[in-house]
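Reply to dn_fold:

You asked what the input looked like. This is it:
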Amino acid sequence: MSAPKSRRHEKIEVPQEVQLRTTVELSELLRKLKSEVEKGNTKYYTPYSLAAAYSIKVSDAKRLLKEAVKQNILKPYSGGRRAPTFIPAHSKPS
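and this is what came back:
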C-alpha cells in the first residue's frame, strides 16, 4: 500500500467584480429599488433580476422583495415559491 499523499490547501483569489455581497444593507437597496420603481422603466421584478442588477444573492433579493411588498412599493403579480413576479404597487396615470 502506498503512503497517503499530503494535501496542500491553497487560497484561491477571486476578482472583486465576481464576488457577491455577503452582508446586504437592506435599507440602502430598498431605497434604490423604490427610486427605480418610481421611474417606471421596468414592468416587473423577479428575485433573479434583482440579484443580477444589484450583485447580491438570490436569497437576499427575495428578502428585499418581501420588504418592498410590506412597504407597499411592489405587489405580487404571479409566480410561486421559486420564481415569484412582482409589479409596481402604484401605476402612473396616463
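Helices lie at 26-39, 47-54, 58-70.
Hope that clears it up.
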